[in-house]
Amino acid sequence: xxxxxxxxxxxxxxxxxxxxxxxxxxxxxxxxxxxxxxxxxxxxxxxxxxxxxxxxxxxxxxxxxxxxxxxxxxxxxxxxxxxxxxxxxxxxxxxxxxxxxxxxxxxxxxxxxxxxxxxxxxxxxxxxxxxxxxxxxxxxxxxxxxxxxxxxxxxxxxxxxxxxxxxxxxxxxxxxxxxxxxxxxxxxxxxxxxxxxxxxxxxxxxxxxxxxxxxxxxxxxxxxxxxxxxxxxxxxxxxxxxxxxxxxxxxxxxxxxxxxxxxxxxxxxxxxxxxxxxxxxxxxxxxxxxxxxxxxxxxxxxxxxxxxxxxxxxxxxxxxxxxxxxxxxxxxxxxxxxxxxxxxxxxxxxxxxxxxxxxxxxxxxxxxxxxxx
Length: 373
Known about the structure:
This protein is an alpha+beta fold.
């Protein structure tokens, strides 16, 4: 049975089995599987106000933080509203988040995301007022402001409502200006650390070997399963960017552990190519009981003075015992395709396969890590 035919057979169950069997010897660029020290993004967050809403903002009576923020903003602008009663519903308190790219300079613009935190119904048509964005150290790194684009809408009447997307969240493209740079001089580094996105001792050693073979000297060393330390050679002194550019194009063959990943909510099963099992016998059967209620109406005879119309229950019970399923024996150290074929021979779908794989793991026959999401 081919892999295509197997996938078509389970597609009707609204689930899919994903096989991560890669070709032997497949190589990947180093830049696609590692991160270099210092080349990273930073998360920014801020609290602000969105104004100009068409009556879909926060209720100042229940959203006290919105009321206090509005009063404070007006006071900073010279308007005293502390002792007055505010009843506007055109303002919403929001959280503003952004990602500061590596090596961003002052004046660079970045995108920001807007999310309502009060009882606002819609941010459509609103404008974010000046909002400082701070990093984990409490310093302001960017300032955001501009019209909010939600890409969603909502409308309602007396008896029905309709909405598309999430109208209480939006974005501002290029809505923040970078005000502070993160001081990091990559070119002056004498040692560069390389972090593997999927830690593995074999892959880490292969990366170090590939770098040493390219440079022609032992400048790279595998420190652990997730880190490779590389010395900047004299030929690249004060030019670490050129060294990183050269080595990130080198190709290595990543090695992965045998692993089965199961998402019980969606029925997705992902199995790596190195998954093996010991000899095990598998049988699968389902007992299905269907109870159908088809009540009937019993009416009295015509012109009856004492009879009344009643509902008479009628219950039908069906029992389906799939006793024709066979006991299948999977031999020792079968391949991934043989494992799939053996499970498929039982005539089970991905939902049942999840239970079978968990049972095989519990028996100690599955020589792979089993992860349930």
